[in-house]
Amino acid sequence: MTFNQLKMALYSTFITNYYGFKFNKDSTSKDKKRIRTQYAQQLLGKLNIHVNVINKEKLPQQGQYLLISNHRSVIDPLIIELATKDSDLFGYWISKKELANSFFFGKFVRNAGTILLDRDSSEMGDFFSDIKACVKGGNSVYIFPEGTRNKENTEIGEFKEGSRIIAMKNRLPILPVFIRSQANEILMSAIRSGKETLCIDIEIGDVIDYKDRSMGLDEAYKKQFNIK
Fold first, then answer.
1. Bridge-partner residues for 203, per DSSP?
2. Which of 33, 111, 180, 218 has the fewest CB within 10 Å, making it most exposed?
3. What is the topology classification, in CATH, of domain 3-225?
4. What are the φ and ψ backbone dihedral angles of 135, each rounded to 5 degrees?
5. How far apart are CA 113 and CA 107, in angstroms?
6. Whole-number Å distance between alpha carbons of 193 and 2
7. Max Cα distance, the chain (Å)
8. φ, ψ at 85 (rounded to 5°)
9. What does each of the 228 residues of the chain score in pLDDT, given as a tens digit?
10. Cross-strand bridge partners of residue 174
């Protein structure tokens, strides 16, 4: 590990936990959105990473949605927070249960607005109940339909069926976004140098009706963003 990498790792750990403590049990969705945006701006700003939003006019300004995105880097949630910062949208992130116990992410994950998924559990009742409560509270749901980071040499991995089920059960229109840039490569470059301003492109797609079953969700996503 280089000196720059070590310095950035220590800074990231500090700032993530610092913002994790800024939430409290009385934090409203509006409070959480503000704090999450500040966190994303500070961390990506430290890395000199700029987020460019393509088709920003397609981003709904309010309402409730199931936001879906491809997933290739640890900073993808931050990219999406900045892409949606000028709207009133706020979503609870679907997050794997292990992250809630992480030294690096734990405090932030537990407090910032997440729905924890136990991927080893055969009983999903509590998970879907948590989603229903989130939606009833007026919030959106944000999810990576691939289920985990895509580390293969492909644009996107196979979507899990759970995303479609969440949309159907909660009558949520589906808002697709696509991180066009290789965010993980840009992150590694930023950590190595830390001086040059780097840009990540994220594209907003057209809203998909949750009742539309004319094609699979991954097929509809690929078609929107012209992914082969």
1. 54, 178
2. 180
3. Glycerol-3-phosphate (1)-acyltransferase (3.40.1130)
4. -65, -40
5. 11
6. 11
7. 52
8. -65, -30
9. 677 778 888 899 999 999 999 998 778 999 999 999 999 999 999 999 999 999 999 999 999 999 999 999 999 999 999 999 999 999 999 998 888 888 778 889 999 999 999 877 778 889 999 999 999 999 999 999 998 888 887 889 899 989 999 999 999 999 999 999 999 999 999 998 767 899 999 999 999 999 999 999 999 999 999 998
10. 66, 208
Q: Kindly state the tokens that stand for 45.
A: 């700003």
Within 10 Å of residue 102's Cβ, how many Cβ atoms? 14
Closest to 116 in 3D by CA, of 133, 136, 131, 138 = 131
- 56 burial (CB, 10 Å; 0-12 / 13-18 / 19+) is middle
In sequence order, what DSSP letters do the residues of the chain get, joined into one string? --HHHHHHHHHHHHHHHHHHTT--TT--HHHHHHHHHHHHHHHHHHTTEEEEEETGGGS-SSS--EEEE---STTHHHHHHHHTTTSS--EEEEEEGGGGG-TTTHHHHHHSSEEEE-TT-S--HHHHHHHHHHHHTT-EEEE-TTSS---SSSS--PPPTHHHHHHHHHTPPEEEEEE-S-HHHHHHHHHHH--S-EEEEEEE---B-TT--SS-HHHHHHHHHT--
Residue 51 class from Cβ within 10 Å (0-12 exposed, 13-18 middle, 19+ buried)? buried
Taking CA 20 as the corner, what is the angle to CA 16 and CA 22, rounded to the nearest 5 degrees? 125
